[in-house]
Protein backbone atom coordinates (compact mmCIF):
# COMPACT_ATOMS: atom_id res chain seq x y z
CA UNK A 1 0.00 0.00 0.00
CA UNK A 2 2.80 2.37 0.94
CA UNK A 3 4.47 1.73 -2.37
CA UNK A 4 1.26 2.43 -4.23
CA UNK A 5 0.73 5.63 -2.27
CA UNK A 6 4.26 6.67 -3.03
CA UNK A 7 3.73 6.16 -6.71
CA UNK A 8 0.49 8.10 -6.65
CA UNK A 9 2.19 10.92 -4.82
CA UNK A 10 4.90 10.93 -7.43
CA UNK A 11 2.36 11.01 -10.21
CA UNK A 12 0.52 13.78 -8.46
CA UNK A 13 3.67 15.90 -8.24
CA UNK A 14 4.63 15.17 -11.80
CA UNK A 15 1.22 16.23 -13.04
CA UNK A 16 1.50 19.42 -11.04
CA UNK A 17 5.00 20.19 -12.19
CA UNK A 18 3.92 19.78 -15.75
CA UNK A 19 1.03 22.08 -15.17
CA UNK A 20 3.23 24.73 -13.60
CA UNK A 21 5.78 24.46 -16.41
CA UNK A 22 2.99 24.63 -18.95
CA UNK A 23 1.49 27.71 -17.33
CA UNK A 24 4.86 29.38 -17.29
CA UNK A 25 5.37 28.64 -20.97
CA UNK A 26 1.92 30.01 -21.76
CA UNK A 27 2.76 33.15 -19.80
CA UNK A 28 5.99 33.64 -21.77
CA UNK A 29 4.12 33.27 -25.07
CA UNK A 30 1.38 35.64 -23.94
CA UNK A 31 3.94 38.16 -22.73
CA UNK A 32 5.87 38.10 -26.02
CA UNK A 33 2.58 38.76 -27.82
CA UNK A 34 1.75 41.54 -25.37
CA UNK A 35 5.02 43.31 -26.15
CA UNK A 36 4.49 42.95 -29.91
CA UNK A 37 0.82 44.02 -29.73
CA UNK A 38 1.38 46.98 -27.44
CA UNK A 39 -0.78 45.61 -24.61
CA UNK A 40 1.56 47.01 -21.96
CA UNK A 41 1.16 50.54 -20.65
CA UNK A 42 2.37 52.60 -17.72
CA UNK A 43 0.26 54.04 -14.93
CA UNK A 44 1.41 56.56 -12.34
CA UNK A 45 0.81 56.77 -8.60
CA UNK A 46 1.27 60.14 -6.85
CA UNK A 47 3.62 60.54 -3.88
CA UNK A 48 3.15 63.50 -1.55
CA UNK A 49 5.44 65.43 0.76
CA UNK A 50 3.82 64.86 4.17
CA UNK A 51 4.81 68.23 5.67
CA UNK A 52 3.71 70.48 2.77
CA UNK A 53 1.14 68.30 0.99
CA UNK A 54 2.91 68.90 -2.32
CA UNK A 55 2.93 66.29 -5.06
CA UNK A 56 6.62 65.45 -5.43
CA UNK A 57 6.93 62.19 -7.36
CA UNK A 58 4.99 59.91 -9.69
CA UNK A 59 5.82 56.21 -9.48
CA UNK A 60 5.64 54.50 -12.86
CA UNK A 61 3.91 51.12 -12.56
CA UNK A 62 3.54 48.79 -15.50
CA UNK A 63 0.07 47.66 -16.52
CA UNK A 64 -0.99 44.83 -18.79
CA UNK A 65 -4.45 44.83 -20.29
CA UNK A 66 -4.89 41.45 -21.98
CA UNK A 67 -7.57 41.50 -24.73
CA UNK A 68 -9.33 38.41 -23.30
CA UNK A 69 -8.22 38.16 -19.66
CA UNK A 70 -8.26 41.84 -18.74
CA UNK A 71 -5.77 43.29 -16.28
CA UNK A 72 -2.90 41.01 -15.28
CA UNK A 73 -1.00 42.11 -12.16
CA UNK A 74 2.76 42.83 -12.34
CA UNK A 75 3.44 40.24 -9.63
CA UNK A 76 2.11 37.63 -12.07
CA UNK A 77 4.36 38.48 -14.99
CA UNK A 78 7.38 40.49 -13.78
CA UNK A 79 9.06 37.36 -12.32
CA UNK A 80 8.60 35.52 -15.66
CA UNK A 81 9.87 38.58 -17.53
CA UNK A 82 12.95 38.57 -15.28
CA UNK A 83 13.65 34.85 -15.74
CA UNK A 84 13.36 35.03 -19.52
CA UNK A 85 15.20 38.32 -19.94
CA UNK A 86 12.11 39.95 -21.47
CA UNK A 87 12.38 42.48 -18.64
CA UNK A 88 15.19 44.19 -20.54
CA UNK A 89 12.90 45.20 -23.42
CA UNK A 90 9.99 45.89 -21.11
CA UNK A 91 12.19 47.92 -18.77
CA UNK A 92 13.54 50.05 -21.61
CA UNK A 93 10.00 50.75 -22.79
CA UNK A 94 8.81 51.73 -19.31
CA UNK A 95 11.79 54.02 -18.80
CA UNK A 96 11.34 55.75 -22.15
CA UNK A 97 7.57 56.11 -21.64
CA UNK A 98 8.00 57.42 -18.08
CA UNK A 99 10.54 60.09 -19.11
CA UNK A 100 8.33 61.18 -22.02
CA UNK A 101 5.18 61.30 -19.86
CA UNK A 102 6.78 63.23 -17.01
CA UNK A 103 8.22 65.74 -19.44
CA UNK A 104 4.78 66.28 -20.97
CA UNK A 105 3.18 66.65 -17.51
CA UNK A 106 5.81 69.16 -16.35
CA UNK A 107 5.53 71.13 -19.56
CA UNK A 108 1.77 71.37 -19.30
CA UNK A 109 1.72 72.34 -15.63
CA UNK A 110 4.98 74.31 -15.49
CA UNK A 111 5.68 72.53 -12.21
CA UNK A 112 8.49 70.10 -11.46
CA UNK A 113 7.75 66.52 -10.51
CA UNK A 114 9.97 63.48 -10.38
CA UNK A 115 9.24 60.16 -11.97
CA UNK A 116 10.27 56.98 -10.14
CA UNK A 117 10.88 53.86 -12.21
CA UNK A 118 11.26 50.32 -10.85
CA UNK A 119 14.37 48.53 -12.06
CA UNK A 120 14.96 44.76 -11.90
CA UNK A 121 18.32 43.28 -10.99
CA UNK A 122 18.40 41.65 -14.40
CA UNK A 123 18.42 45.04 -16.16
CA UNK A 124 21.72 45.90 -14.48
CA UNK A 125 23.28 42.82 -16.00
CA UNK A 126 22.59 44.11 -19.48
CA UNK A 127 25.95 45.88 -19.67
CA UNK A 128 26.35 49.66 -19.74
CA UNK A 129 23.03 50.09 -17.98
CA UNK A 130 24.05 53.55 -16.77
CA UNK A 131 24.82 54.70 -20.31
CA UNK A 132 21.52 53.31 -21.49
CA UNK A 133 19.59 55.19 -18.80
CA UNK A 134 21.40 58.47 -19.44
CA UNK A 135 20.85 58.00 -23.18
CA UNK A 136 17.11 57.52 -22.69
CA UNK A 137 16.92 60.58 -20.42
CA UNK A 138 18.73 62.71 -22.99
CA UNK A 139 16.66 61.42 -25.91
CA UNK A 140 13.44 62.24 -24.05
CA UNK A 141 14.66 65.73 -23.22
CA UNK A 142 14.54 65.70 -19.42
CA UNK A 143 17.35 66.31 -16.95
CA UNK A 144 18.58 63.42 -14.76
CA UNK A 145 17.38 65.24 -11.61
CA UNK A 146 13.77 64.39 -12.54
CA UNK A 147 14.41 60.64 -12.62
CA UNK A 148 14.50 58.31 -9.64
CA UNK A 149 15.34 54.63 -9.97
CA UNK A 150 13.81 52.18 -7.47
CA UNK A 151 15.95 49.19 -6.67
CA UNK A 152 15.29 46.36 -4.23
CA UNK A 153 17.73 45.01 -1.67
CA UNK A 154 17.99 41.80 -3.67
CA UNK A 155 20.19 43.57 -6.21
CA UNK A 156 22.56 44.81 -3.53
CA UNK A 157 22.87 41.38 -1.93
CA UNK A 158 24.85 40.24 -4.93
CA UNK A 159 27.45 42.82 -3.99
CA UNK A 160 29.14 42.93 -7.34
CA UNK A 161 31.56 45.73 -8.26
CA UNK A 162 29.92 46.31 -11.64
CA UNK A 163 26.59 47.14 -10.00
CA UNK A 164 28.35 49.47 -7.59
CA UNK A 165 30.02 51.30 -10.48
CA UNK A 166 26.73 51.68 -12.35
CA UNK A 167 25.00 53.10 -9.29
CA UNK A 168 27.82 55.53 -8.61
CA UNK A 169 27.89 56.83 -12.18
CA UNK A 170 24.11 57.28 -12.26
CA UNK A 171 24.18 59.16 -8.95
CA UNK A 172 27.00 61.35 -10.16
CA UNK A 173 24.97 62.25 -13.27
CA UNK A 174 22.14 63.45 -11.00
CA UNK A 175 19.75 60.48 -11.06
CA UNK A 176 18.19 59.71 -7.65
CA UNK A 177 18.42 56.19 -6.31
CA UNK A 178 15.91 54.68 -3.94
CA UNK A 179 15.72 51.40 -2.05
CA UNK A 180 12.30 49.85 -2.61
CA UNK A 181 10.44 47.52 -0.22
CA UNK A 182 12.94 48.28 2.53
CA UNK A 183 12.96 45.70 5.31
CA UNK A 184 11.76 42.74 3.27
CA UNK A 185 15.07 41.56 1.83
CA UNK A 186 18.04 40.03 3.57
CA UNK A 187 20.31 42.97 3.88
CA UNK A 188 23.37 43.71 5.89
CA UNK A 189 22.58 47.43 6.02
CA UNK A 190 26.21 48.10 5.19
CA UNK A 191 25.13 48.82 1.63
CA UNK A 192 23.40 51.97 2.90
CA UNK A 193 26.85 53.37 3.49
CA UNK A 194 28.49 51.82 0.47
CA UNK A 195 26.07 52.93 -2.24
CA UNK A 196 24.88 56.45 -3.10
CA UNK A 197 21.20 56.16 -2.18
CA UNK A 198 18.99 59.22 -1.68
CA UNK A 199 15.71 57.61 -0.72
CA UNK A 200 14.46 54.69 1.33
CA UNK A 201 10.95 53.28 0.87
CA UNK A 202 9.53 51.50 3.90
CA UNK A 203 7.67 48.41 2.73
CA UNK A 204 3.93 48.52 3.17
CA UNK A 205 4.03 45.42 5.37
CA UNK A 206 5.34 47.64 8.20
CA UNK A 207 3.03 50.56 7.45
CA UNK A 208 -0.04 48.31 7.49
CA UNK A 209 0.00 47.68 11.24
CA UNK A 210 1.72 50.84 12.41
CA UNK A 211 -1.24 52.18 14.38
CA UNK A 212 -2.17 49.03 16.28
CA UNK A 213 0.96 46.90 16.53
CA UNK A 214 3.73 48.19 18.77
CA UNK A 215 6.42 46.16 16.99
CA UNK A 216 5.54 47.60 13.58
CA UNK A 217 5.44 51.08 15.14
CA UNK A 218 8.86 50.55 16.72
CA UNK A 219 10.32 49.28 13.44
CA UNK A 220 8.93 52.20 11.45
CA UNK A 221 10.30 54.71 13.98
CA UNK A 222 13.68 53.00 13.94
CA UNK A 223 13.84 52.96 10.14
CA UNK A 224 12.91 56.66 9.95
CA UNK A 225 15.53 57.59 12.56
CA UNK A 226 18.19 55.54 10.81
CA UNK A 227 17.35 57.03 7.41
CA UNK A 228 17.47 60.56 8.81
CA UNK A 229 20.86 60.02 10.35
CA UNK A 230 22.13 58.73 7.00
CA UNK A 231 20.62 61.72 5.18
CA UNK A 232 18.12 59.63 3.24
CA UNK A 233 14.58 60.77 2.47
CA UNK A 234 11.98 58.32 3.77
CA UNK A 235 8.90 57.25 1.86
CA UNK A 236 6.14 55.15 3.43
CA UNK A 237 4.43 52.79 0.98
CA UNK A 238 0.87 51.51 1.26
CA UNK A 239 -0.69 54.32 3.29
CA UNK A 240 -4.39 53.46 3.35
CA UNK A 241 -5.68 55.16 6.51
CA UNK A 242 -5.64 58.65 8.02
CA UNK A 243 -4.30 57.18 11.28
CA UNK A 244 -1.28 55.74 9.48
CA UNK A 245 -0.56 59.08 7.83
CA UNK A 246 -0.82 60.94 11.15
CA UNK A 247 1.51 58.42 12.77
CA UNK A 248 4.07 58.76 9.97
CA UNK A 249 3.92 62.55 10.13
CA UNK A 250 4.45 62.53 13.89
CA UNK A 251 7.52 60.34 13.49
CA UNK A 252 9.12 62.50 10.80
CA UNK A 253 8.49 60.47 7.66
CA UNK A 254 9.04 62.69 4.59
CA UNK A 255 6.82 61.30 1.85
CA UNK A 256 3.68 59.15 1.69
CA UNK A 257 2.33 56.87 -1.06
CA UNK A 258 -0.86 54.87 -0.88
CA UNK A 259 -4.48 54.38 -1.83
CA UNK A 260 -5.52 56.98 0.77
CA UNK A 261 -3.77 59.68 -1.24
CA UNK A 262 -4.05 58.39 -4.80
CA UNK A 263 -4.13 55.16 -6.74
CA UNK A 264 -2.00 54.35 -9.77
CA UNK A 265 -3.77 55.83 -12.83
CA UNK A 266 -3.38 56.43 -16.55
CA UNK A 267 -1.84 59.67 -17.82
CA UNK A 268 -5.32 60.74 -18.99
CA UNK A 269 -6.80 60.27 -15.51
CA UNK A 270 -3.74 61.84 -13.94
CA UNK A 271 -3.88 65.01 -16.03
CA UNK A 272 -7.59 65.35 -15.19
CA UNK A 273 -6.86 65.06 -11.48
CA UNK A 274 -3.47 66.67 -11.08
CA UNK A 275 -4.94 70.21 -10.89
CA UNK A 276 -6.45 69.36 -7.51
CA UNK A 277 -3.01 68.75 -6.08
CA UNK A 278 -0.57 71.44 -5.10
CA UNK A 279 2.90 71.17 -6.51
CA UNK A 280 6.29 72.74 -6.14
CA UNK A 281 6.77 75.93 -8.21
CA UNK A 282 9.07 75.54 -11.18
CA UNK A 283 12.01 77.92 -11.04
CA UNK A 284 13.17 77.48 -14.61
CA UNK A 285 10.78 76.48 -17.40
CA UNK A 286 11.01 72.94 -18.75
CA UNK A 287 12.58 72.88 -22.21
P1 LIG B 1 6.40 48.36 -5.81
O1 LIG B 1 7.49 48.96 -6.61
O2 LIG B 1 6.62 48.23 -4.36
O3 LIG B 1 5.12 49.25 -6.14
C1 LIG B 1 4.11 49.58 -5.22
C2 LIG B 1 2.96 48.61 -5.33
O4 LIG B 1 2.08 48.84 -4.24
C3 LIG B 1 2.11 48.80 -6.59
O5 LIG B 1 1.60 47.52 -6.97
C4 LIG B 1 0.99 49.68 -6.10
O6 LIG B 1 -0.20 49.59 -6.87
C5 LIG B 1 0.78 49.12 -4.72
N1 LIG B 1 0.19 50.07 -3.78
C6 LIG B 1 0.34 51.40 -3.74
N2 LIG B 1 -0.35 51.94 -2.71
C7 LIG B 1 -0.96 50.92 -2.08
C8 LIG B 1 -1.83 50.82 -0.95
O7 LIG B 1 -2.18 51.79 -0.29
N3 LIG B 1 -2.24 49.57 -0.60
C9 LIG B 1 -1.89 48.46 -1.30
N4 LIG B 1 -2.37 47.29 -0.88
N5 LIG B 1 -1.07 48.52 -2.37
C10 LIG B 1 -0.61 49.72 -2.75
P2 LIG B 1 1.65 46.96 -8.46
O8 LIG B 1 1.43 48.09 -9.43
O9 LIG B 1 0.76 45.77 -8.51
O10 LIG B 1 3.15 46.51 -8.63
C11 LIG B 1 3.69 45.46 -7.89
C12 LIG B 1 5.17 45.37 -8.04
O11 LIG B 1 5.53 45.04 -9.39
C13 LIG B 1 5.90 46.69 -7.76
O12 LIG B 1 6.02 46.90 -6.37
C14 LIG B 1 7.22 46.43 -8.46
O13 LIG B 1 8.06 45.65 -7.65
C15 LIG B 1 6.78 45.61 -9.67
N6 LIG B 1 6.69 46.50 -10.84
C16 LIG B 1 5.67 47.30 -11.25
N7 LIG B 1 5.98 47.96 -12.38
C17 LIG B 1 7.27 47.59 -12.69
C18 LIG B 1 8.17 47.94 -13.77
O14 LIG B 1 7.89 48.77 -14.65
N8 LIG B 1 9.40 47.33 -13.74
C19 LIG B 1 9.75 46.43 -12.78
N9 LIG B 1 10.97 45.86 -12.84
N10 LIG B 1 8.93 46.09 -11.76
C20 LIG B 1 7.70 46.68 -11.72
MG1 LIG C 1 8.53 50.63 -6.47
MG1 LIG D 1 7.71 48.95 -3.00
MG1 LIG E 1 7.17 45.45 -4.28
What's the topology here?
Elements: H1 2-36, E1 40-49, E2 55-66, E3 70-72, H2 74-84, H3 86-109, E4 114-118, H4 121-124, H5 129-140, E5 147-152, H6 153-157, H7 161-173, E6 176-182, H8 191-194, E7 199-202, H9 204-208, H10 214-229, E8 233-236, H11 242-250, E9 255-256, H12 267-273
Helix pairs in contact: 1-2, 2-3, 3-5, 5-7
Brief summary:
With 287 residues, this protein is α/β, with parallel strands linked by helices.
Structure commentary:
This protein is an alpha/beta fold. It is 51% helix and 18% strand. The chain contains twelve helices and nine strands. The radius of gyration is 21 Å and the shape is globular. The model has no long low-confidence stretch (mean pLDDT 91). The structure holds ligand C2E and magnesium ion (3 copies). Ligand C2E binds next to strand 2, helix 2, helix 3 and strand 6.
Tag the structure with descriptive keywords.
287 residues; alpha/beta; eight-stranded mixed barrel; globular; binds ligand C2E; binds magnesium ion; PAS domain S-box-containing protein/diguanylate cyclase (GGDEF)-like protein
Amino acid sequence: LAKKDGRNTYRFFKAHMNEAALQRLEMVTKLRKAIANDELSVHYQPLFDIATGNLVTLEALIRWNHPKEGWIAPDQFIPVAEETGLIKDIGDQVLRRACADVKEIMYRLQRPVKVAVNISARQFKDGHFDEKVLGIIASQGIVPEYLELEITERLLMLDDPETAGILRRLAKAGVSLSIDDFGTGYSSLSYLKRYPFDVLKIDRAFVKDVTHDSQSAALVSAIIAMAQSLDLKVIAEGVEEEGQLAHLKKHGCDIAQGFLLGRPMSVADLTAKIHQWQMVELEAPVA
